[in-house]
Amino acid sequence: MQVRRLVYSDLPAVLAIERRAFETPWSLAMFVLELSKPAGICLAISDRDGLTGYLVCSRYADVWHLMNIAVMPEQRRRGIARCLLERLFDEAGPNARYTLEVRTSNHGAIAMYEQLGFRRAGHRRRYYHDNGEDALIMWLEAPQAVEA
Questions:
Q1: E strands along 6-142, which residues?
Q2: Model pTM?
Q3: Given a cut of 70, is residue 3 above it in pLDDT?
């Protein structure tokens, strides 16, 4: 597996994964906008067969907001998302703070985030427009302190 910065030429593969991973996928314009932000960190992970996952994280003031992370459905539960997040932590630096929203029904993702040190911080009622599902808000302060 190779982790690298996401580039515009990756977007066709990203969109293919996005459409398989989510009921309401991001548009091409949304990915282009995030890639164009100079303070963002957008990562891709690939194997010999091509792109298997990606991560999009934006910086707002002194907080990194994990906007999107996805892995090809048949590649899940193999540590790919964790690998992307660990690279994000390396690139953002040791004092970085992170937040994210995740569907309350996504127990696998919630468990992974908690293993990485994220803590539950609240809910956003009816956050997801496709089915009105609530989002769990999670925060992580200085991930290196959790790893020690």
A1: 41-47, 50-60, 63-71, 97-103, 119-124, 135-141
A2: 0.91
A3: yes
